[in-house]
Design a protein that fits this description.
With 335 residues, the chain is α+β, with helices and mostly antiparallel strands. Helices cover 43% and strands 18% of the residues. It contains nine helices and twelve strands. A five-stranded antiparallel sheet has the order 3-2-1-5-4. A hairpin with a 4-residue loop joins strand 6 and strand 7.
Length: 335
């Protein structure tokens, strides 16, 4: 059996190894916090060997609810992570230079195992951080825990917490995806160049989709509108802004999202997409640029925007036959 890797596989492994070096110098994970008293938000970034961001402010706030303060010296991981990442960087380059399939499979398996252990270790720290509270804290809410989300969004009292991979984390995930594709490619490799090209195209699509994120689900009745701070309760009128960094801002009414956009707290170039819930199918989102909008005073949205978004003319027509109003577009609405 041929144990030699294809040239393209060897090149990709060397690229993966070099990419992992950048993980040592970029933040791997980030936790964003937002509350009415901090409209600009607070942020903590986790690097391979340190923390950055508003750690001191977060420690000051968390002291009142009994959470432990965060200190870099308390994390053994900051001493171990750079060594492990450096090992995998060298290992992937070595795989690319040697070009042996068995070595590829071994390094890939170890890389996946490390990723699982690292995420479990992160979750375990978050659990302890959010549950092991000082019983003599100034503010005690019976039964309340403050564990941040492992990934995604979670409401913690009046703070909204987002947890997502940062640049280093995205690189790390991308390396894993590429290694998976190359391993699959080497397992199934045939002489046909067409098959090779097809696998590489599929792999590229998977990489792009892994970095792509659309609208986030809204927890109706529990999450608050980012602008007016009212509870988002009517799923027919909700909307959402997703930034280029995959951060989501959620609103209960078109009035709120338009007022927020007018304030320009987010630069236009930092907005990836704007979404509205489908008035006819409220659990589905429609990208604003592709939606059909209908404005009627009889729609009675939460904050008086009275604007519904539709995916097609048939659904819009059914509503227009009941409620008198006017059709419009996202471009016209933004003016």
């Amino acid at each position: 059996m041929n144990n030699r890797m294809a040239k393209i596989s060897k090149i990709l492994m060397v690229v993966c190894g070099i990419a992992l070096v950048f993980v040592l110098f970029t933040p791997i994970w980030k936790i964003d916090l937002e509350a009415p008293q901090y409209p600009e938000g607070l942020q903590m970034k986790i690097h391979a060997s340190k923390l950055s961001g508003n750690v001191d402010i977060i420690n000051g706030l968390n002291h009142y609810i009994g959470m432990k303060t965060i200190h870099e010296e308390d994390f053994t991981e900051f001493k171990v992570l750079p060594v492990i990442i450096g090992f995998f960087a060298a290992a992937f380059v070595f795989v690319g230079l040697i070009g042996r399939k068995k070595l590829l499979y071994t390094v890939f398996a170890l890389f996946i195992l490390f990723g699982i252990v690292a995420m479990y270790d992160f979750w375990k720290w978050e659990y302890d951080y959010g549950h092991n509270l000082d019983p003599n804290a100034a503010i005690i809410v019976p039964g309340m825990a403050y564990q941040p989300p492992l990934i995604g969004f979670k409401q913690l009292l009046n703070f909204g917490a987002w947890s997502f991979p940062d640049i280093g984390g995205i690189i790390f995930i991308s390396v894993g995806v590429i290694a998976l594709i190359v391993s699959f490619f080497e397992l199934r490799r045939r002489s046909s160049k067409i098959l090779q090209a097809a696998i590489l195209i599929i792999g590229s699509s998977l990489m792009l989709s892994s970095c792509n994120s659309g609208p986030q689900p809204i927890n109706y009745g529990k999450e608050n509108c980012h602008f007016c701070k009212m509870t988002i309760s009517d799923n027919r009128f909700a909307s959402e802004i997703v930034t280029t960094k995959s951060k989501a801002y959620k609103f209960d009414d078109s009035h709120c999202i338009l007022a927020f956009l007018e304030k320009k707290e987010i630069k236009p170039e930092d907005i990836k997409a704007v979404y509205f819930t489908n008035y006819s199918e409220p659990h589905n989102f429609i990208e604003a640029d592709k939606a059909l909008f209908y404005k009627s005073e009889d729609l009675k949205s939460p904050m008086g925007g009275n604007l519904g978004a539709f995916e097609n003319n048939d659904d819009l027509k059914k509503v227009s036959e009941i409620y008198p109003g006017n059709t419009t577009s996202w471009e016209e609405i933004k003016k």
